[in-house]
Amino acid sequence: MYVRDAKNRDEAWLLDHIEAMGLDDMAFRSRDYVIAVDEESNERVGFGRLRIHKGDPELCELTGIGVLEPWRGQGVGAHVIERLVETADAEGFETVYTLTDEPGYLERFGFEPVADEDLPDRLRERLSEKRSVVDESVVGLRIEVDAFDLPAGTREAFKNAAADGETDSDHEESPEDFGIDPDTATYKYDTGS
């Protein structure tokens, strides 16, 4: 499992999954996203976005974070968030904001609640938009980039992630894994025995 920058060819996939999960796609640009990819199957399993708000001062916001259902609970989202925070740090941001209806998840990494009135003006406007579109329970959080911390065991879980939490040792390959119905299959090279 690894996390990489999104490419143009990922745009349709991203938009489909953002819509399916009911996530914010305002001012969508695929180049702002990162994607978690399973190395064995090359399947895209999670994503997230670092949105830069221009102005004085510039701000950055984590948004559009999602993990496909069979891959949840295995550190995929944590590593997407880690990559986005590292990118923010590399781009010179000291603080990263997010507006979410799942604050408990992000608080595990060191994000702290921000009172509505303490959010920068642009994010306060976005908060109102998100509350009207996503859910009234959306709140603001922030983290200093050097305070980000992965919970114990998350890195190992991410390295060994598999769909539905299945590991290689849990599954023995069968003809069905390759789309073959063993009861009706015919074989091109029959030895006649």
UniProtKB/TrEMBL annotation:
PROSITE patterns: GNAT. Residues 159-193 are annotated as: Disordered. InterPro entries: Acyl_CoA_acyltransferase, GNAT_dom. CDD domains: NAT_SF. Residues 1-130 form the N-acetyltransferase domain. GO terms for molecular function: acyltransferase activity, transferring groups other than amino-acyl groups. Residues 165-180 have a biased composition (Acidic residues). This is N-acetylglutamate synthase, GNAT family. The lineage of its organism: Archaea, Methanobacteriati, Methanobacteriota, Stenosarchaea group, Halobacteria.
